[in-house]
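Per your request, structure below.
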């Protein structure tokens, strides 16, 4: 009977040892998963920030283009008192505005 109790105790002890190893492995995997989640959270945050910056840059670029178009229309067709009859002066002004806008775009691209 004592041998039987010892065998049972040894079996329980071995089972507890195996269970401890399993729990330790689960804890390690949980910590590793937590680290991966932190990394992915940081990456997603950076991606979100970059997306927001790109949207702001696109909005600024669109506003710049709109302003350039308005200036071209103003100098080419609406600005009074500049035309002496043949319309050449207005077109020269519009060409200058287009060239200035192109220079600004090249600088912004650099």
């Amino acid at each position: 009977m004592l041998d039987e109790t010892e065998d049972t105790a040894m079996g329980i002890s071995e089972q507890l040892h195996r269970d401890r190893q399993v729990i330790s492995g689960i804890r390690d995997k949980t910590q590793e998963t937590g680290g991966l989640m932190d990394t992915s959270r940081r990456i997603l945050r950076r991606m979100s920030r970059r997306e927001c910056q790109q949207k702001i840059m696109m909005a600024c670029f669109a506003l710049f283009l709109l302003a350039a178009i308005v200036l071209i229309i103003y100098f080419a067709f609406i600005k009074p008192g500049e035309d002496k009859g043949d319309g050449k002066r207005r077109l020269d002004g519009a060409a200058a505005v287009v060239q200035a806008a192109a220079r600004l775009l090249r600088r912004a691209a650099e």
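The chain has one domain: 2-109.

Regards,
D.
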